[in-house]
Structure formats: C-alpha cells, structure tokens
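Progress report, Aim 2. The chain analyzed during this reporting quarter is listed below.
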Amino acid sequence: MNLSSTLPRLAFCAVLALSAQAALAQQQLVPAQSEVQFTARQMGVPLDGHFKKFSAQVAFDPAKPVTSKISFTVDTGSATLGSRETDAELPKPTWFNVARFPQAQFDSTAIKSLGGGRFEVAGKLTIKGTSQNVVVPVTLTQSGATTTATGTLPIKRLAFKIGENEWADTSMVADDVTVKFKLALTGVSKL
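Predicted structure tokens for the chain:
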C-alpha cells in the first residue's frame, strides 16, 4: 500500500463529503411562500384553517433520498380557523393544550423515491404528546432556485387527543382531519 497516494484520495473524499454536508445544510424553508392548512368537519360542514408559524430542518438529496432527513415543527398556538371564538378555544387543554404542548413535530425515519418527483416520507408525527408512525406522499417541483414540496396527510384527531371530553363525539366534530402543506425550499439539488 502506497501511503503517499492514499492520503490525497482520502483528503479529496473528505472534502467531497464536507461539501455535500455544507450544501445540504444550506437548504432553507421560505416561510412567505409556504403554508400548512387543515380541514376538519363540524356537523358535516368543512372548517378550513391553517397554522401561521412553522419551521423545517431539511437535509435532502434527491439522488440519495435514503440518506436524507426532514424535521418539521408547527407552533400549535398559531392555529386559526378565522373566527375569534374558535381561535380562542384551540389553545385550550381540550384541543391543542398549547401551554403544555406548544409544538407538533414530524421527524422522518425513511424517504423513498417513487419516481417523477414523487416521494414517500415515513416518520413519526407527535401532537399533544402522542406519537404515531405516518407515511406522507410528497411531490417535489422545481422552479429556478426554489423547490416546492406538496402533500396531504389524513389524520385521526382522536388518536392525538385533539378535541377531548364532550368534543370526542364524532357526530359533532369528525375524527378525520386533512392536513395539506406546501413548503418552498431553497438549496435543493436538481431533481
């Protein structure tokens, strides 16, 4: 083994690895171009809301999705249904219990490419101290330097204790809630 020829190759590999990590570290969420919405049904009538505050830590490589990681945090106190009365109820212990659980969290455990800019992101969703394994279908599109990730995740609110006590009656508020997201990211490699 020739040490003098091996060291430069190792140094080159280390530089490539650090460059790749630096590129992934520069991926940023663009909040002004992003949104997280949800739809619930009260007595059969859809109620559309959204979260005003959320953040993401993304280390995503489209060429190697299995090595990628996504962590997404939503401030539950930023939920709004557009009504002062309803918005005053959402932070209370019966619903999001914001004082005790100020954030909901999603952490990816596996990312699989389905081709054509479509991915399957498996991970752990934690809301109000309860965790569930979920699989989120995500579609990526690129325009200039911005990559947009969109997807829909159906959840059961009662599995996360959202709407407890008298609000656990699903004839009043349905158990099914649909979460839709559009996340604009910069720094993602070409698809």
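Helices lie at 3-25, 84-89. Residues 35 and 142 are 17 Å apart (CA to CA). These observations will guide the mutagenesis work planned for the next reporting period.
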